[in-house]
Amino acid sequence: MITAGCDVGSLTAKAVVMEQGKILGSSIQKVRAHPEQAGQEVLESALREVNLDKGDVGAIIGTGYGGKNLPFVNRCESEIICHSQGAVWQEPDTGIIIDIGGQDVKAIKTDAQGNVLRYIYNDKCASGTGRFLEIIAEALELELDELGEIHDKSGKDLSLSNQCVVFAETEVISLVGEGEEIPDIVRAMHYSVSHRAASLARSLEIKPVAVMSGGVAKNRGMFKALQDSLGTELRSIPYFQLNGAIGAAILAEDSGQITGDRKKKSEVGQ
Rounded to 10 degrees, what is the CA torsion of 56, 60, 65, 70? Predict the structure, then answer.
């Protein structure tokens, strides 16, 4: 059975089409004004990649910030569950998942089957989130995609004393005025975010293998900072940005089987 997962976050929408544990097609797009429209467009894009349409899909599950607004899904599932399922599918040794999202940061403890054992997240402020990185990058007049490369050029340990993004932005501007090098400030920013995420993970009792989920994982400076802050092995998963959508598509397999069973029972009843 062909299934699909659609993960609509605050910044990006992701869709994955799967069949029998294999990814057929996928798409990632920026979210504009309407999450519903973003979900529709990203799913259609993933289906076009493999010459399919929604009628060919047995079940679709939505997740993420805008998942509940998608009228075409069979049901909506928690991001926590979807990221856990997706991570274990990609890296079977996964024990801890760190997801630094646009508006929150999550730490998830999972078992070998992708079942969530415990989780914790911070969505009360921008500290430790992708938004923190975005605001500081803007203050430094940098693109987000540049941060990893710039981090590698750092030659000095700096630290940001403020976790609040408003005060941290002011602190960064002051550091620039004092003549500190941009790569050193970028490195300090990454470690500020990683310490916050690692602190959440440690409250769950860190297991030997951790993975980083979400789009921030493509920032190699952030990845290195998080590995240092965790003090355990942090493995890279191939589809880090699609992880939530992959988990949703995997869960859709069960949803489709349930729907099919109910349909068969209904047909027998007729």
Answer: 70
- Could you tell me if residue 87 is inside a domain? no
Q: Are 214 and 28 in contact (CB under 8 A)?
A: no
Contact yes or no for 223/236 (Cβ under 8 A): yes
* Averaged confidence pLDDT in the chain: 89
pLDDT at 128: 74
What does the alpha-carbon distance between residue 1 and residue 45 come to, in Å, rounded to a whole number?
Answer: 19
Angle (CA) 30-33-35 rounded to 5° is 70
CATH number at residue 65: 3.30.420.40
Let me know whether 195 and 113 are in one domain.
Answer: yes
Calculate mean pLDDT across residues 225-239: 94
Would you say residue 167 lies in a domain?
Answer: yes
CB neighbours of residue 102 within 10 Å: 20
pLDDT band at 123 (very low <50, low <70, confident <90, very high): low
- pLDDT grade, residue 266 (50/70/90)? very low
pLDDT tens, 29-54? 998 778 899 999 999 999 999 999 99
Q: d(Cα 75, Cα 60) in Å, to the nearest integer? A: 7
Question: Both 140 and 63 in a single domain?
Answer: no
Instruction: Identify the domain containing residue 140 by its residue range.
Output: 94-235
Domain assignment of residue 89, yes or no = no
Res 104: pLDDT: 86
Q: Positive or negative CA dihedral for 222, 225, 229, 231?
A: positive
- Tokens 């990845």 correspond to 223
